[in-house]
Amino acid sequence: MKRLFGLFVFLAMAAMAGHDAVRADDFKLSNNQRIACGRGLNAGKLQNVNCKSFAYIFNSKTSEFYRCQVSVAVTRDNKEILRVDTDGACTLKARFYAEDSSYVFDATETEPPNVNGFFGSGGTAIWVADSTRLSAKGCIILNVGIGPEVMKCVDMAFGK
Predict the structure, then answer these.
(1) Is residue 129 exposed (0-12), middle (13-18) or buried (19+ Cβ within 10 Å)?
(2) Residue 44: how many other CB atoms lie within 10 Å
């Protein structure tokens, strides 16, 4: 029985070694995190404070990225905090390059409300560079308010 269990463990480890495991050091946090806060008054002299922040987490091997957002809402009166709500999630977005390589990444987006956002809440600028092939993509994503987001990228080369 021990030999059978040992064989099973060996086969499981060998099968896992053949897969491309996701490594924690493949993920990088973008340098352009943002926060936007607002205040409001409700009936009965209640005050609301809402803050949202977002960040991008990028897989430097595959060029996939996640957009992560967190929000905190506080309701209070003149004497005490009555309620605190939190929310947050990360959403996987598409790859920029089909092949695995060594990528660097950064992103920034307009913060609503913003006079620059004629189309809905504004846009996002994303830059991805392949440090192995010395190429880059500059991408703009617009939330146009109707239908899906519009994303267009321009391929470029550098250092050649």
Answers:
(1) buried
(2) 6
Residue with the larger pLDDT of the pair 43 and 55: 55
One-letter identity of residue 57: I
Say how many C-beta atoms besides its own lie within 10 A of residue 19's C-beta: 7
What domain range includes position 121?
A: 24-157
Would the CA dihedral through 56, 107, 98, 95 be positive or negative?
positive
Region at 39 (left for phi over 0; alpha for psi -120 to 50; beta for the rest) = beta
Quick check: 82 and 76 in contact, CB under 8 A? Answer: yes
pLDDT at 10: 39
d(CA 63, CA 47): 42
| Helices within the chain (DSSP H only) | 2-18
Q: Is residue 10 part of a domain?
A: no
Structural domains counted in the chain: 1
Distance CA 67, CA 29 (A): 10
